[in-house]
User: What shape does this take?
Amino acid sequence: MPVEIDLPQQDDRVRAHFTALEARRLRDGLLRQNRSPADLPFSDRDLEEVFVKIALFDEYTYVGNRIIQRPSPSTLRRWEMPVRMALEFGPSVPQARQAADRALVAAYAARLGRLTGHPVTLIDRGANFHVLVMSEAERQDIGQRLRQLVPGVDDVTVALVQNLPITVSCLVLAFSRSGTDVYSDALAIIRAELPDLSRHACYHEELAQGMGLPNDSPRARPSIFNDTAEFGVLTVMDEQLLRILYDPRLSPGMREREARPVIRIIARELMGGES
Assistant: This one.
């Protein structure tokens, strides 16, 4: 007869998996914490190419009734209304960790606001960017809550969140209610079982991606937008990507052909004409 596994035991197995994964990454020199590594200089042309790959391609694609990881060309998207982030923790997250993470995210939201010149704050209610920190068991039971937070969210998205594969530590999904390229809502999912460095890296990556940098690329170095997990913090390159994204010379809906000449000018200005 089948053996039932209770949900807390499932959470323990997920926690053990990610604890071991973080240890391996640290042994391999990954999850680096330096924002501006001397061993990885980059030029304005590097910045231009990385921005195109990160901002003008999607990481995920709908295929039938499934969402799969497959980069595809897209349009420039970003927020026009103020970004109001809110943290929501599952009961499994200790109070001390909740307080520490809240302070980290509040400071990081303010940093995103300074980098983009766009209002970004952490609030308690009335949010449009929801950051959920939940265990395996809590996330699998989240369907009704997702529909409350993002009214009209489709069943495919709910299933993606509930059935998050063990290969994914965290993710962010951004939505537009108007059918345009302007974001109206976003939802970040962070696994509560992640050890500190991995969890902090998820906050750095997913909250920045939710501003309008939806893709990852192996070309992005030094960057947190790279699936190798080489960096665990937002780097100087990433800061420049955010500045480009919210430059008023770009606008939502632009595709690569139209946007690239403008991106080239902005990247050259940010890098002081370096090539």
Summary: Residues 1-27+78-211 form one domain. The chain is about 40% helix and 15% strand. The first strand starts at residue 57 and ends at 63.
